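lol forgot to send this yesterday, sorry. struct tokens for the thing we talked abt
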């Protein structure tokens, strides 16, 4: 059954859109090489679904990419009339040879930001990777303090404190990240791809 309440329907649009994109990625129909392509493909699907699921007279769906909010950008902002959703995306490809500890820090930062937003009724964090290390690897050293591994839990009222503070010239990731409410990472695997779809 299609949800009647607008907030529920907006969340349904986001979740259904993500499932469509994921299946297209898994089958190879859609190629994802980094976050920007994931953002483009997902927003295209969401735009179509959102317009299709305006089922009542006068309803309006809108979507915006890189929307300015609170001195930084949100990857996707969409609205069903006056009900708003904020979506942050992360895409970690093994082939990119990224610094995994910094990737995980950035994931925590996005989650914390989303949770602090008061102007959105729906908030989603979606992360996709083809690198099992993020999911089931042994996160030691600097990675241990920012792990997003499967089953990892952080309790509300605590802080994530990077162990590298003061050691690097770039200080942009030296800040503590507050954990507003309990947070558990539960990854789902599909044909060698792993993803998080967190409702915040």
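and heres what i got for the seq, position by position
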């Amino acid at each position: 059954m299609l949800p009647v309440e607008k907030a529920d329907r907006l969340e349904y649009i986001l979740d259904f859109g993500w499932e469509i994109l994921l299946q297209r990625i898994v089958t190879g129909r859609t190629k994802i090489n980094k976050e920007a392509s994931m953002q483009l493909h997902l927003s295209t699907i969401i735009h179509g679904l959102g317009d299709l699921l305006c089922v009542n007279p006068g309803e309006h769906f809108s979507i915006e990419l890189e929307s300015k909010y609170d001195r930084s950008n949100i990857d996707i902002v969409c609205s069903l009339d006056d009900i708003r959703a904020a979506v942050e995306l992360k895409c970690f490809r093994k082939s990119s040879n990224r610094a995994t500890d910094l990737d995980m820090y950035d994931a925590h930062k996005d989650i914390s930001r989303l949770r602090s937003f008061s102007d959105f009724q729906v908030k989603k964090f979606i992360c996709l990777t083809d690198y099992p290390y993020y999911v089931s690897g042994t996160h030691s050293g600097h990675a241990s303090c920012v792990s997003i591994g499967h089953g990892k839990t952080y309790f509300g009222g605590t802080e994530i404190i990077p162990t590298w503070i003061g050691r690097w010239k770039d200080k942009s990731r030296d800040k503590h990240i507050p954990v507003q409410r309990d947070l558990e990472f539960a990854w789902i695997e599909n044909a060698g791809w792993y993803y998080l779809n967190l409702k915040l």
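Residues 96 and 121 are 34 Å apart (CA to CA). anyway ping me if u want another try
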